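Appendix C. Worked example: Rrf2 family transcriptional regulator
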Amino acid sequence: MRKDNRLSRMLHVLIHMQLRGGSTTSETLALMLNTNPVVVRRVMAGLRQHGYVRSEGGHHGGWTLACELSSLTVLDVHRALGAPEVLAVGLAADHPACPVERAVTLTLGTALRATELALLDRLGHLTVADIAAELVV
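Step 2, the predicted output written as C-alpha cells:
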C-alpha cells in the first residue's frame, strides 16, 4: 500500500514559506517537492480554503502564509488535506459470518480506533511552529 505523504510534505512547505518570508510560487514549491506545480496548487488549495495560506496570481504572485505557525496545528493541516487515513492497517471483510474474522475485526478495530484517536489528539497539540523549533541548521 502506498503511503500518503501529503501531510509531511505540506508541513515541510509551510516551514520553508515561513523561513523564506514573502510569497513563494507554485513552481518553486514544486521544485522543492520534486513534483508538478499543478499538484502543488491542488494540494495548497485545501490550505487556502481553511485560511492558512493565500495565493495571488500574476508576475509577483505566489503563496503566502495567512496565519502564524504557532496557531496552526498539525491536525489543522491534516484536516485541510481532507483528513486522509492516518493508519495503513485495514480490516478484512471477506467472511463476515466467520466467528474468527469477527473476533479479529472487533479486537483489532478497537485497538486501531484507540491508536488513531491518540495520534489525532497528539497532532492537535503539536503546532507547525513546534516542528520548526526543532530545526538544526
